[in-house]
Amino acid sequence: MSVRLCVKLARCSVTLLRSQSCINKEIVQIYRSLSTSQPHTAEKKLFTPGPLGTSLTVRQAMLQDLGSRDIKFINVVKKIRADLLSIAEVAPADFTSILLQGSGTFAVESIFQTSVPRTGGKVLILENGVYGRRMKTICDTLAIPAHMESFAEDSRVDLGRVESVLKADNSFTHVAVVQCETTSGLFNDVESVGKLVKKYIPDCTYFVDAMSSFGAVPVDFSASNIDVLVSSANKCLQGVPGFGFAIIRKDTLSRCKGNSRSLSLDLYDQCDALDKTSQFRFTPATHAMLAFSQALDEFRQEGGVHGRRQRYMENCRVLNEGMTRLGFHSYLKEDVAGYIITSYFYPQHPKFSFAEFYNRLNEKDDVIYPGKLLKADCFRIGTIGHLFPEDVEQLLRNIESVCRDMGIQIPLEDKA
Ligand SMILES: Cc1ncc(COP(=O)(O)O)c(C=O)c1O
Asked: Which ranges in the chain are annotated with CATH 3.40.640.10?
C-alpha cells in the first residue's frame, strides 16, 4: 500500500471515529432524556397471583434514589410500619410490623426459622394447596419437626379434623394455615381454626399466611387469636415486588431472641434494628418502599380493606359471569371460593392447548396463569392488583376471540 493511500485511510478512520463518537453522545442523550421522562405505561394486564399490576403513580414514586440513612427514607419506613398495624387494626402496644427484603416465601421462612424453638419446637401445618405444602418443605429444609395435615384442594381445612388432631397431640408449639390458598383461590376459615388452636393449646403460636389476601380480605386478629401474619408488598396492597412483612405479637417476638437459624432471615434482629434506627441491617429495597408508601396512600383513598375488597369482588363477579357465559367451569364450589383468583377447568376440546391459549392472550396483552392443582387440569385468572371491571370485560372478549381463533366453539359445550 502506498504512503498516500495509508494517510487517506487514516484520515477516513479519524472522521469515522469522530462521527461514531457523535452518534454515541446522541445515544447517551436520548437515553438520559428517556430515563427522566414519564415512565412507559404498562400495557400488560396481569391476571395472575403475582407479580401484579401497579398504578402509574406507584411506579412513578420509585423515580428517586435515596440513601438508606436519608431522613426521607427513614420516615417512609416509619410510616409503612405504622400503616400496616393500622390496616391490621391491631394496637401498637401489642403488635409490631417487620419489613423483610425478598419475596413472600422469604417472609414465611423467616417466621419458622426465627420463632420455632430449637428444642421442643413442633409445627402443625394445615394444608390444602401448594403454599401449605411449601411450609412443610421450609420446615423440612430447616430440620424443624412438622406434621402436615392435608385436606382436599377443593375444600376448606376441616374443623372437625383439626380439633381431633389438636385433642390427640397438644405438644405443637406452632400451628400454621394459609388464608387464601392461591393454588385454587379457596378461602380457609382462619378465625375458627384460631379459636380451636387456643382452646386446645393456649401457648401455641398461631401463624397465618395471608400473602395473597391481606388488605382485601378482612382479618380479625383478636377474634382469630392470630400471633403472626405475613404478606408481601406486591399483592393486595399493590406495591411493587421486593419485600414482605410480618405483623407479629410483641410477646411472641420477644421469645425469639437468639433463636434464629439464619442471619439474614432473623426477624428478631431485623425488628430490633428497625426499632432502634428505622434502618435495615442489610441493603433495603429503597425504591420498592417508596412505591409501597404511595401504594398505601392509594389504598386508603380507595377506602382501605373495604374499598379494595369491593373492587376485587366486582372484578371477580364480572369474570365469573362472563366465563360461565362462555361455557367455562370453575374448579371450586361457590361456598368455598374467594375473589382473589379463580381456577377454571381446561375446555374439554381436542384443539385446546394451555400454552397456545396463554400465548395468544399474552399477544393481546392479557397475562393469565397456569394451574398448580394436584388432581385437576386448570388455569387461573387473578382479579387483584391494578385491575378494574373494564379490564376483566376486555379479557373476556379476548378469551372469546382466542378460542374462536383456535377453532374452539364458544360457548363451550363442556359438562360441569
Ligand atoms: C398464599 C401464598 N403464600 C406464599 C406465597 C409465596 O410468595 P412469593 O412467590 O412472593 O415467594 C404466595 C405467592 O403467591 C402465596 O400466594
From this structure: 56-301
